């Protein structure tokens, strides 16, 4: 027992101070890893995505698709042909409209000839009326000056001739009015026929539409030989001018992203240095959409912002992108 008590005793360090020291060191390492230079990017890095306002080209009438000039993914320029619907029916309607115009123009010519004859008849009738009237007035004046100097039969015949000439004159005036009205009606028919021709020609052109703007063909809904219903989309185009970058900015930072502000964007496989100009900022905030939930943004109020990219042809609708005020703020890819 004496030997056991004479053995040297081992020193024991306090446990609590050691645990506190370890915890302090761990917290310090974590803060250093989180805040060390070169690792944490700028706070104004937003996750967004590419959207577009597609143009859907359709036919105003039903028909058979006789030609498809584009395919999915193809780039088109403004004015490029897209597809063609069988024009047989519309071409026949166009010819009918042209024939109606020719018929109505012939009616106008005929009524103009009638008007010319009516005016000639009026001039002749007026001349006859003037002569008959002068003769009747001469005889009547002579009879008043010297009663019995003119036979009553001659006076009656002169009066009858004068009345007949007046009736012919009035009839000629009526013919002029009728001819004028007929010309107006015929001209109205010509205008109506011309409007029908314009409509038929426009519909004929609509059967072979062209791209309204430069862009990329997103989809082709029908194949050659298929029947197309009226106003059914046949080709969908993503126009270059309608591609936008949509992202969400917190209410604390939204004042920095007003229309006209330049931002930089990046995405997987995209060239460096891409930029966009803010075009739209929502007036009211909303909760962060689930598609861009993150530890920093969850359950925060954000404002929708849309920006027009400088080179929209390098972006695809639905593509996720990062948005920042400068290239140095973007995360490495």
What does this structure look like?
The chain is built from 4 helices and 14 strands. It starts with a helix and ends in a 9-residue tail after the last strand. The strands form 3 sheets. It has a 6-stranded antiparallel β-barrel. Strands 2-8-6-4 form a 4-stranded antiparallel β-sheet, with no helix packed on it. Strand 10 (262-266) and strand 11 (274-281) form a beta hairpin. It has a domain at 88-206. The model is unreliable at 1-13 and 30-41 (pLDDT under 50). Helix 3 (88-145) runs antiparallel to helix 4 (152-206). With 333 residues, it is an alpha+beta fold. Helices cover 42% and strands 22% of the residues. It is elongated.
Give the gist of this structure.
Residues 58-233 form the Multidrug resistance protein MdtA-like barrel-sandwich hybrid domain. The chain is α+β, with helices and mostly antiparallel strands and 333 residues long.
User: How far is the N terminus from the C terminus?
Assistant: 73 Å
Based on CA atoms alone, the radius of gyration comes out at 46 Å
**Number of helical segments?**
4
Cα shape? elongated
Structural class: alpha+beta
Strand fraction band? 15-25%
Give the strand tally.
14
Largest sheet: 6 strands, antiparallel, barrel
Helix content: 40-55%
Order of helices and strands: HHEEEEEHHEEEEEEEEE
Strand order of the largest sheet: 1-9-13-11-10-14
Q: Report mean pLDDT, rounded to a whole number.
A: 81
Poorly predicted spans: 1-13, 30-41
Subcellular location: Cell envelope
Protein name: Secretion protein HlyD
Transmembrane segments: 15-35
Organism: Sphingobium yanoikuyae (Sphingomonas yanoikuyae)
């Amino acid at each position: 027992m004496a030997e056991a008590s004479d053995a040297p005793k081992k020193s024991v360090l306090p446990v609590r101070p050691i645990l506190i020291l370890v915890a302090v060191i761990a917290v310090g390492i974590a803060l250093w890893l989180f805040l060390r230079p070169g690792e944490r990017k700028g706070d104004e890095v937003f996750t967004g995505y590419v959207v577009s306002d597609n143009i859907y080209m359709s036919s105003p009438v039903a028909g058979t698709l006789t030609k498809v000039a584009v395919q999915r993914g193809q780039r088109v320029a403004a004015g490029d042909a897209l597809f063609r619907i069988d024009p047989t029916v519309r071409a026949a309607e166009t010819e009918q409209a042209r024939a109606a115009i020719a018929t109505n123009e012939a009616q106008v010519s005929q009524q103009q000839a009638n008007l010319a004859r009516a005016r000639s008849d009026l001039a002749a009738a007026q001349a006859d009326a003037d002569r008959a009237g002068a003769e009747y007035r001469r005889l009547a004046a002579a009879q008043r000056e010297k009663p019995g100097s003119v036979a009553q039969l001659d006076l009656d015949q002169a009066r009858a001739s004068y009345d007949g000439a007046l009736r012919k004159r009035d009839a000629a005036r009526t013919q002029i009015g009728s001819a004028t009205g007929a010309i107006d009606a015929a001209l109205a028919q010509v205008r109506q026929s011309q409007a029908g021709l314009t409509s038929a020609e426009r519909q004929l052109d609509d059967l072979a539409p062209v791209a309204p703007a430069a862009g990329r063909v997103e989809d082709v809904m029908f194949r050659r030989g298929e029947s197309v219903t009226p106003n059914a989309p046949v080709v969908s185009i993503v126009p270059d001018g309608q591609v936008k970058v949509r992202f969400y900015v917190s209410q604390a930072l939204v004042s920095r992203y007003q229309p006209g502000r330049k931002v930089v964007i990046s995405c997987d496989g995209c060239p460096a240095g891409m930029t966009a100009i803010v075009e739209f900022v929502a007036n009211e905030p909303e909760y962060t959409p689930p598609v861009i939930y993150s530890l920093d943004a969850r359950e925060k109020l954000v404002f929708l912002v849309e920006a027009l990219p400088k080179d929209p042809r390098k972006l695809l609708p639905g593509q996720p992108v990062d948005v920042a005020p400068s290239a140095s703020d973007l995360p490495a890819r």
